[in-house]
Specification:
homodimer; two-stranded antiparallel sheet; 2 helices; mainly beta
């Protein structure tokens, strides 16, 4: 369905009961999926107008400009909405090459380790830490 | 945080109030993000044991083996959990090269078209339909 007739592009998004929609960030260069976060109307609007990923932090309950503390800003290259309007995809340039607060390139660094053929017993960290959390956020905070 | 000590790998997932977690499917070959769907405990367990993407359909309120009607099965290549445990990433082989029910390669086929420098007026379909919905699901249904 084309939403060309929708006057407000923000109305075309199927916001959930909390007024949020999941947003996936993917690295424009190597193509790796970096993280999943959430946006409200203001965050999506700011993302497009500022040309950088702006999320809504559910834990802090406020607008969160990705990289505001760490410097690991995500420059917006391309934005996409899915068929049902209930998920967003951001192609970004990840400044510093680190998206995760743990200092890893991507937040998706845990893989299941199977104890038997069809049952996984635990998740194992499979990606290296590029920079320590202390070094990113500072010990004085 | 390593969850090695967690006996049940399913308990390490931060299920939401509805017992669900968002799952991103990414194509193993070209790296494109194909779709975002949801999983409950059973869906995640089946995904790993059956080696294919099994979601929980919120609209139909039942387990949904991706491709069960269309044939567009997603073979599981790799599974990842994110740092907070509240999002999953599936690297898949997309059978038929079509993930979207609209017959497109990816569900993320709508891009904002700006009416002015910082305000987008509408979303435009920017990807081609590979196969028609009628052809995928049949007209007899």
């Amino acid at each position: 369905m084309n939403t060309r007739s929708t006057q407000d592009w923000l109305d075309a998004v199927a916001w959930n009961d909390e007024g949020l929609v999941p947003a996936i960030a993917q690295d424009h260069g190597h193509g790796r999926v970096l993280m999943l976060a959430w946006m409200n109307r203001e965050a999506l609007s700011l993302t497009l107008s500022e040309g950088r990923a702006v999320y809504y932090s559910r834990s802090r309950q406020r607008i969160w400009r990705k990289g505001e503390e760490s410097g690991h800003v995500q420059k917006l290259i391309q934005l996409r909405l899915d068929c049902d309007g209930d998920a967003l995809l951001l192609e970004v340039e990840q400044i510093g090459g680190i998206a995760c607060h743990t200092g890893r390139a991507s937040c998706f660094y845990r893989a299941p380790v199977a104890a038997s053929a069809d049952h996984a017993a635990y998740w194992q960290d499979v990606d290296a830490v590029i920079q320590s959390e202390e070094s990113i956020y500072g010990s004085a905070e």
